[in-house]
Amino acid sequence: MRSFDLAPLYRATVGFDTLADMMDRVLSTETGHQTYPPYNIEKTAEDEYRISIAVAGFSDSDLSVDVKEQALVVTGRKPADDAERAYLHRGIATRAFERRFHLADHVRVTGASHTDGMLHIDLQREIPEALKPRRIEIAKGPSLDKDVVDAKTVN
Predict the structure, then answer these.
(1) CA-based nearest residue to 99, from 122, 77, 79
(2) Which CATH number fits domain 37-128: 1.10.760.10, 2.60.40.790, 3.40.50.720, 3.40.30.10?
(3) Ramachandran bin of 141, using left for φ above 0, alpha for ψ from -120 to 50, beta for the remaining angles
(4) pTM above 0.70?
(5) For 89-96, what is the mean pLDDT?
(6) What is the residue extent of each domain of the chain?
(7) C-beta separation of 96 from 77 below 8 A
(8) d(CA 64, CA 100)
(9) CB contact at 8 A, 69 and 82
């Protein structure tokens, strides 16, 4: 895959840092394509979302959900107990993981729950009043006829 250098974009623009960072993140080849653990992102209401992550085999104490710099970071660390067990077949993956989700502006995490092997993280978009669309009432002003000058009176 080709690697793009975004340094000229940083030098030639002001105020587009988040756009450049997002492009850098998307074009980055370091992250690879993570498939573990599997997850769903669903829209539950107009401005509400839920991320559901399959974390079978992990307890509440093994999981961590953090928000850092517009990023939701979910980590899972299982203490090593392989010395006590002899597996004939090991098909349930309980390896450590770190999954990152970039949060858009004005999106905050409202809660997290862990039930039946699924970690559910609820998100809500809260748009500030200053950014919400608003209707401007058109006031009825004085008639324009008062300001119109009659051509006969001028001449």
Answers:
(1) 77
(2) 2.60.40.790
(3) beta
(4) no
(5) 83
(6) 1-33, 37-128
(7) yes
(8) 12
(9) no
